Amino acid sequence: MIYYQLSFLQSFFGIGLSVIGEKGQPVKDVLSGTLDAVFWMINKILKLAPLGVFCFYM
């Protein structure tokens, strides 16, 4: 049930950012920067994953 609430909140937040236009740009910039940081971390983890699997089986 909480997933429906989160989905509604995300949609409502996105619509709100779209409606306010230029005033929402700083929020969009923060979210974009956060997304870049998360993708960087995932990339590093995936590059190290084969080493972790190798060490696990040794």
Automatic annotation (TrEMBL):
Pfam families: SDF
Keyword S-adenosyl-L-methionine: no
Example of a GO MF term: symporter activity
Main location as per UniProt: membrane
Subcellular locations according to the entry: Membrane
Keyword Transferase: no
The entry's keywords: Membrane, Transmembrane, Transmembrane helix, Transport
An example Gene Ontology CC term for this record: membrane
Membrane-related topology note: Multi-pass membrane protein
Protein name: Proton/glutamate symport protein @ Sodium/glutamate symport protein
